[in-house]
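Same chain as my last thread, 158 residues:
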Amino acid sequence: MHYDRTDARILEIVQKNNRLTSEIIGELAGLSATACQRRLKRLRSDGIIEADVSIVSAKAVGRPIQMLVLVSLERERADIIDRFKKAIKSSAEVVNGFYVTGDADFVLYITSRTMEDYEQFTRRFFYENPDIKGFKTMVVMDRVKAGFAIPVEVPDQD
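reply #2:
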């Protein structure tokens, strides 16, 4: 995946606000709207831009309980890991899931309407899964920062 300085500028702009028009993005990046559209299309097709999303308030949509959950698997085997990754992807309650190194195998960000709903989720998702050794839940008291913006390295000019 290759990108240049202008692409890096476009990436910085759309990470802050992906609802801007191609005309405005182009103006900020020093391009015509058409050239900007071409670059955005390439950045998406190359997988540099993975998705265009809106960050929704969990509280505003009735899911005020937010947790970070550390999950340890019974064994680290490829089939077990793949099965759990599939379960994460198919669960609406799991907003983000990460396969990690360290004390846990996975870190999950989960939202819930109530603690009772979360308890039901844990029974279904964790306790009924024989591949899970254990899990630890940390309840989020305050979401200090929310976003997906990645610092974009400006490539060296060749």
